[in-house]
Design goal:
about 400 residues; mainly alpha; 16 helices; about 0% strand; disordered N terminus; disordered C terminus
């Protein structure tokens, strides 16, 4: 059991539930603007290490902070959820982050085009903005699940920064339907490396989003190339933003555009990779898959990374209640990742290390029955043989 002060309050009566993290939900705004802070500090101190502030924060500081602060397993009761969701304070913080992503992107592209950085400094700014692009995708995820037209428009606006305008359509109509099945490009498989997953997930998600949007428009008698196409609406904002920057600052920003965009996409893909690795909804006799349950998502209750990611790590409750606001998400009895997302990202970059940590956890979910796992098809025979032999050996012993 964690020794976190927040975890210690797990036994508090539900009728007295209070969000102990309430006054810390502004932290993602600090991350959203951190590359700007890095550019400013580098200019005023002549120390270009500040240009790497966001990667250092994400890959080094946050894993340590997760370990030091610990976990928070407290849940709001059903009675407390309506009050939490109607509290405008939480909504304001999410909305306030959206202009910050634009400010950060514009300052970043201006800095690499006009400041005399070495390639190391240029790379630091580009990766810093890439990580805030990843956070913009998390905000787009949170807002894009809401049913109001205003929120959906905001999601299109924020998703335009990392040039991922198809995300809401793909995630809401595709991923939530097919999650933890072999049909879902956004659910990773046992034995599949992060790199193989990225090459499958990114084009697969775009293809599914376009297909679903085309079908939606066809039901209204419209062409997929009409102004009503929600994907094209968001991509138009991206084209305006990126095109204006290229026109004003020239081709020197092309590496920035490529790095900040693709590494930002990597942020989303890596999140998807660790959220459902190897988990499988079992197929019913009629061919359909069982309903999505908590054990089909990996959760992480670590306080600091949950604050940074708007409770994205309470992923099982999100799949059970997609429209629930981040502050009200609960920690279900779902399988647990070994740490928060920042450290798990680093683990996944090294496939042998990731598999050494995670494969045994996947097998534990299914009581060691490898046949119930979502296995990478190209490695299926090899994996079955490996674990089948192990099972026979154990039985024989």
């Amino acid at each position: 059991m964690s020794n976190s002060p927040m975890a210690a309050a797990d036994t508090a009566p539900q009728s007295t539930y209070r969000d102990d993290k309430r006054h810390w939900w502004w932290l993602p705004l600090l991350v959203a603007i951190s590359p700007v802070l890095g550019v400013y500090l580098a200019a005023t101190t002549s120390q270009n290490l500040w240009l790497w502030i966001t990667p250092i924060l994400w890959y080094a500081v946050l894993p340590v902070a997760d370990w030091l602060v610990g976990r928070d397993t407290r849940n709001p009761s059903d009675a407390a959820v309506p009050s939490l969701e109607s509290d405008r304070y939480y909504k304001f913080l999410v909305y306030a982050s959206i202009p910050l992503f634009y400010v950060t992107w514009i300052v970043g592209v201006w800095a690499v085009a006009t400041q005399d950085y070495s390639w190391v400094g240029y790379l630091g700014v580009s990766l810093s903005v890439a990580l805030t692009n990843g956070l913009a995708l998390v905000v787009g995820h949170e807002i894009g699940h809401k049913t109001g037209r205003f929120e959906k428009r905001l999601a299109q606006v924020v998703l335009a920064v990392p040039a991922y305008g198809h995300f809401s359509a793909e995630h809401n109509r595709g991923h939530h339907k097919d999650v933890a099945t072999p049909n879902d490009p956004a659910s990773s498989r046992f034995g599949e490396s992060l790199y193989a997953f990225v090459l499958r997930e990114i084009p697969g998600a775009l293809s599914r989003a376009w297909h679903d949007e085309k079908a939606r428009l066809a039901r209204g008698g419209k062409s997929p190339w009409s102004p009503s196409n929600e994907l094209l609406q968001s991509f138009s904002i991206t084209a305006l933003l990126y095109g204006t920057a290229l026109l004003l600052l020239g081709p020197v920003i092309i590496p920035f555009l490529l790095i900040s965009t693709f590494w930002g996409w990597q942020f989303l893909s890596t999140s998807n990779y660790i959220e459902h690795y190897g988990l499988l909804r079992q197929q019913l006799p009629d061919g359909r898959f069982e309903r999505c349950r908590p054990e089909h998502s990996w959760n992480a209750d670590h306080v600091i990374s949950n604050l940074m990611l708007y409770h994205l790590q309470r992923h099982s409750d999100h799949h059970a209640r997609p429209t629930r606001c981040y502050q009200a998400l609960r920690s279900d009895k779902a399988p647990e990742l070994p740490s928060g997302y920042p450290l798990c990202f680093t683990l996944s970059y090294f496939p042998p290390l990731w598999r050494a940590v995670m494969d045994k956890r996947v097998l534990a979910v299914y009581s060691g029955d490898i046949t119930r796992v979502n296995i990478q098809p190209s490695k299926r025979e090899q994996i079955l043989a490996r674990y089948g032999a192990a099972q026979k050996s154990a039985a024989g012993a």
